[in-house]
Amino acid sequence: MGRENDEPPITGLIADPSLCIARDFSEPSRILIFLANDCVETLVTKANGGRRRPRLQKENRARTGSFNDMPGRGRNRAIEARAEAAFRSLIAESPDFILQRADENDFGSDCQIEVLDNGLATNVRLHVQLKGTERSLNADGSLSISIEQTNLNYLIAQGHSLFVACHVPTRSLRLTAVEAVLRQYEHKNVSWKDQETLTVTFVEELTLDRLARMAGLALSSSRSARDERIAQSQAIPSAFPDVVRDAMPAVNVPDDPERALQILEALYERGADSVISAAFDQFAAVFGRNSAEMGCCYMSEINLGMAGRGRPDRIRAGKVHFKAKLRTKRYLPGSLHYTIGNAYSALGDEKSAKASYQAAARDAAYMADPGMAAMCLKNLGASFEKLGNEEMAAELYRGALKMNPHLPEAHLALGRYFHRQGQFEEALTHYDATLFDDRDLGKNASVTGWRLNALFNLGQHREAFRAINLLLADANRELWIWSWCARQVSAFSRTSVAAARGALTFWQRYVRTHPDVSAARVDLLLTSFYLRSEGDEIGKDYTAFRAEFETHIAHVHPSEAALPWDRLGHWAQDLDDWEEAERCFRNAYELDGGHYGYCLGTALNFLGRHGEALPLVQAQADSIQPDAMSWFQVASALDHLGRTDEAVAAYRKALVLDPDYAVAMFNMAGVLWNRGDQEEGGRIFRTAVMQFPDHELSAKAQQDLPKLF
Fold it and tell me: Full-prediction pTM beyond 0.90?
């Protein structure tokens, strides 16, 4: 059996004309029974058009005694039909929406309108509850209609939901946002949440322009939420915390321009540029991109651009926006030129930025404010600096500080000027005077970063590591901090024992936080080797450290692993554990070859494996490291291989390169003596004893060969 509109179906009628039984399918356990001859009971919708809760309404009729006496439709149905028709007619004219079918089970949303983007469907929908009334307008021309609180609760679950009212006598449509109703009652400070019905006042006319604004706001809000969902859904679990951390808080921009402007200005005053940028499209949908109200949005984008984070397309639009204001004569020209200069600077056009700042500086009224004048001079100085004129920049920074001695941007700029000149004490003086009020752009963290570099350069290692610990507190907000600190520590960690001690603690913390960074593990190992070489206790003997070494080296990239293996080999060499040293040196040589062959060849010589050692040390002496020590190892290998003439020649080359190489001279004398050339060998022994009288080999030669002396 067919049914009209959304009226609940009546089924299960029996043949007995005196009794009708109907099942209410919205509440299956409920059976409605009524006598046809006494009255007609029908299921109707409450006048507010909300969830259709079945109830019995008796309509008294004159008994005609005729079976042609049928139930009638209430007046409310006709009013609702007119409201729906008027709304459908308006939507049909809009290029921004398409009317979708109503919910099959209507609990408060009479229809959904889908937002179109250039005629394309988006699946972004606004939920609408339609109202209709024939009541007279209020004295102020507004329209009041009652709704059930449950309807409000139901619609608030969807963003940008609407109540639309049709005033039948004037055939006019009006709207109010569900959020506006919620806000209205919340501000009344009454216990409205306990009320079953609420009165909604409709003032604003529903027009195509108004719908277009709603479409833009709903679309931008939906896309922002969509992009965040996509970013989170595509992130690997290990990266998920970073994705969540970097997400901007969702801003619920109201469709009321006045309230939206109040929210925007409050955000801007708090320096929440990143939050404003994330909601840029929503504010643009409410105000219009070319409206005066968008000024704060464009300034926030320019601020972000000057910090390297803004969107160039919005910055260019902001530049056009503020240039247009110059023609209105309503704003202080200097202020506009200053902002335009910032836009040029954010876009990397420093010549144009400089010209704009100079135009601002020519506005006497603007420069009469010391705070504004100081910022203008500071930014003008920054343009000169980027254009290569650092001396002029420094003068402008000093001029800015005369205008405002506490201007943090000027102190930071002048501090960096002295930093580049190598005047680290002067730089620290300005860094210590730099304190930014806002944390949004990480400016204070930047100051600390430059400060710790100056401290390292001044040898104030303890203070530098304190600055690092302070900086790392912001590492989750500023991605550059860990890498910057790592570069500083790597550059200065092995310049003193004090620096190395702080560095070792830093690298242990870094590796725990970034276990996959090969270079950090290398620095950790090399810092430990440095401390040991300087006689500082690292709390581990060779066996314990080797176990730690093996753990770290497994995560080190092969291109960075040779040096740690070489350092470990030298520790083993110091312990006269030449087999262990040979193992370590061989790993280093196989990874990177080159000069690591010297240590491997030396170890092989000590192990008596001279045939393996010779090609390694010969390559060092011939080209890689042609120094006295390399030729000494060549001579040693040749001597043990019985190639004495070549050994003597190699010792002579070592002594030419280093005439004070005592062991080479004694060894050469020994080779000559042992092969029977006692005259030449004796002469060299006597020369060696005279040249190195305090050497231990002098005493041994005199003891073993007394007749020579």
Answer: no
